[in-house]
Amino acid sequence: MAKCQAADDNKGSGSNMLRDRTAVYDPEELSLLGRVFEQSVAALPPTMQTPANRTEIAKIILERAAAGEPPAPLTTFALDKAC
Prior knowledge:
With 83 residues, this protein is an all-alpha fold. It has helices spanning 27-42, 51-66, 74-82.
């Protein structure tokens, strides 16, 4: 699985983030997923808050949400998988 990268190691883009998956979320779910994402990114040291790491965290959160995982533990799960 991808590892978190420091700012000077950042390469690539997140253009393929949702290439094979689609889901529909209501506004409340989107708000909750957004908060989980922001908490996950904020938990990283500043040098690890790169666009690549933000993309990886977003992908993990969306994958877990699509799999029916409860939103609260997604922050911990995303950080465990991304870093």
